[in-house]
Amino acid sequence: MLRRAALLLPLAVVESLSLISCSSPPPRAPCAAAPAASSATIAEPPPAPPSYVLIGRKDAAGKGANFLSHDDGGVLVGGRRIGRRGLVPQLSADVTGNPLIGAARAPGFAGGGWLFWDANAIYSSPTFLAPLQPVSGLDGRVSHVSFAPSFALVRLHSGDRFAWDLRARKRARLSPRGLVDVAALEDGRVAAVFEAGRSAVSIDGGKTWKDTSERVAPHVSSLEERDGELWLWSAGGPAFRLAKDGNLEQHVSVPVRPSPPKDPRWTIPEEPLEAALRRGVPVDERTAAVEVQGAIARVDLRSGALLDVTRRVLPSRTACDMVRMTNQLVLACRGSKASVVAVASPYGEPVIEKTFHVEGSFAASEDTLVFHGPCEGPQRPGAGACVRRAGSWSPVGVVEEDAGADAADSSTPSAVSRWIPGPGGALLGFVHHPTLAFFDPVTGTVMQCKRDNSIRYLDGLRSLGRNPVDRSWVLGRDGRVRGWSRDGAFVIDPAKDCALMPSAFDYKTLLTAGERALGIDASGRYWQSKDFGASWLEVEAPPWTDRTGAPSSCSEVGCAIGPWARLGWPERPPREPSIPTTVEQPLVLESSPAPILACRGAGDSKSAVAPPLHPDGSTEAGFGARLFVRRRGEEESFRVNFGLGVSHPTASTDFASFGLAALMSAKVPKTVDGANGPSPAGPGVLENPYTFQFVEPFDTPLDAKTVVLRLRQLGDGAGLHRQGLLTMTSDGERVGVPVMGQAPGRSDGLLLPMEGPIWVWVRSSGHRQPSVVLALSMEQTEFGDVMGAAAMGEDKLAAGMVSGEGAARVVELSPGRSKVIATVPPPPRSSEYPGNVDAIGVDSTGGIALIRMPSGSEVPTADDPAWLIRGAEALKPLAPWSTLQTADTAACQGDSSGHRAILQLRRRWLQLRTGDLRGSDVGPMMAMVRWSGERVCLEAVMTTGTELELRGTTLAPAYIARFAGKPVAARRSFEPGAEYGSSLVCTLEPPRP
After folding, report:
1. What is the C-alpha to C-alpha distance for residues 962 and 367, in angstroms, rounded to an integer?
2. How far is it, in rounded angstroms, from Cα 974 to Cα 609?
3. Contact present, 327 and 311 (Cβ < 8 Å)
4. What are the residue ranges of helices labelled H in 660-801?
């Protein structure tokens, strides 16, 4: 128990000295008499430096360089364009409705100027700060922009893309057709990547092309202009440079232009000015000092240049903080085994002043530094602290008397948890346990706090900060304690039961640096304090900030506020902010008009809702109006819902945009732990039934089918061990894949993913049982997910798999077996995979091909067609979508050419007109077509409509129309616990302007 305290060295009060004085001039800035001004000329005072300068931000084109890397450039701050003239920031006069998030500078051969984009639109400008001109609205975010000889190729993360002519300010024809990525030079050299991994080069600005697909094998993985040269990288192979004569020169590695030499004295990634703003101290009005791995560096605050660096006196892994005390710079450092203090004059070399043999923390005020530990020797109980006064160190210890003399006096504190420094070496100890108290080591007085005093909740007082030196709390000359906590500024009066006086001011954001603080109020106004929150003054805010912008750090040197450097703590009054004009957002450019699917009601609707659920929870809503039985006695079941929606390997899609397609339910199998994982608890488990309820895609009747498979059949049919199925015991949601049937306009069930590589093919027409068709090897499961399928026989189908990088494969599947029969390499970037997934195409002889639709949300045209990809054959363009007609027309019935496929379109290529029924303007679509080079024949279509309410249940019905054979159409929906259907009459009409 603390009974008596002895101050082991008298206090010494030292008056503060000027940091720089004429009696001790710095070597590079001696005091001298100012020369007399000439009577003939009166020198104009230099302009005041701006309050804020831009620091540490990539240029707007994202090149990773400073924004002064070229003449016409700048940065994007909070969506606004900002350049600078000298040190003065220049702000654009306009902004967009959504913050700009990217930019690309166009080369001269493409028209020059800049392209900018936000989340919803793209804009152009002749210079970085010139007024913006709307270009086009967007259906997705821009992924990147590349430049062909006469246009900019804009790619979206959705896979969509378009060409823009910067000179004519209009959409350009995409040339050559099938272009995926491009790079060009002023001298006419061009390199391009096309669909299906093809590549070509040109040396005459794209007038003629030379195929390089065989040379850059297996395919181009990257295409880039670098230092005035064009480079093509082959996947897993060498790099190729396009020479001026059109030849490709092979290189093992690409020459790298040496980066500007870095000052070897600066050894940390952070820039000198940023380091000074975060943790430096001012030396004079133009210079700051900052600790750098055991040395002291001096930084010019106007230019950010590194002036000089002293020799290191401390290991680089030592954590140090620098404080300014009278005319010295003091480094307090905390190592893993010891703590060290070094000192230096403002322009001198640091020297070790004191070494502590234990790891500990420091606290500092204006002229006092205290170490939380002994001055000498190892840490021991009751060792107190070691305080620096006027350059000398002395212990402040607590001498313990007989612990048993007054052991019952529990009001006496047992230890000082932190020391609070004050002026002239004064100290006060704060005791947090077992009672709250302050301890005066000079008098030995313990000032008890009230038991319910709220200072116990001040996070900043209870513990020291993470930095080696804590400056958040100080002892004032009036005996009061002042400091910062998470909730703002506070004053504590230890002599009055530790009365707590919070600041009257509250700020949304607050950053502190010793006695100084910068706060931002709820309206975004900036305030500063220089006296621990006793007074506040509104000051100038940054010219423009991010909407979520806030100070990131402050020191005596100033503050870093997002990309802005605020030098010093000037009391400049706030300025009226500039109000930029808002540029009108452009509309999405219209593509070629799409044909119209016109539907109208043709009869009564049918609907059903599940009967009341059992109150004990034994029954739940199931597939449509059916019930799912959760429990029968002690047996419990699980289920998996399978939605039907448009698939895509990279873009987000609604897995159930067409409603519930299937439901699988089964009893939770009883298992025991085996050597290779769970095993059936008995032979009866192998007969565990797995019940599948489903509807055929493109079917119009409100008719659900039911099939059953045993666990034994699932395991044996897939040719796999049963452990995967035994671990499939919980409810879930998955995506079903439609299977194109061999009859026109007909699907052949669904491909449903089970556990691991096991897939079940459920179908109704002509099949007694579902088939377990898929057992992929580990290598094949890395190909990606199954996106589409087509029936090839009784128990065989072709499935399309696409990886997240955009590599496509066609896999032949049969019970227990799988075989890759075709592959298509990925594009250079995953975002360059088309906006719609590749479709499996089957011709009249059973031949397999992939149909690629690079046009994304827009219909294919003659200039931008869909492509047939078949093995090593050249890509074949397919007919424009404008040739679409229904399969029951004479032209389609008399033409058996082309490939049948199910197209999965994230945005439909038909205009839906519903007459007295309501339909949405946009939505996904599935279409079963026969597509050749002459025409597109529509066999069946399914698209979404608006939601409807059915006795408390929300349904999302799909519009389904089939034109192969007798035309039929319906509006149909299945959801858990409810189903709805109504007859329609649908026709295909030509597009209208």
Report:
1. 88
2. 10
3. no
4. 711-718, 723-726, 778-781
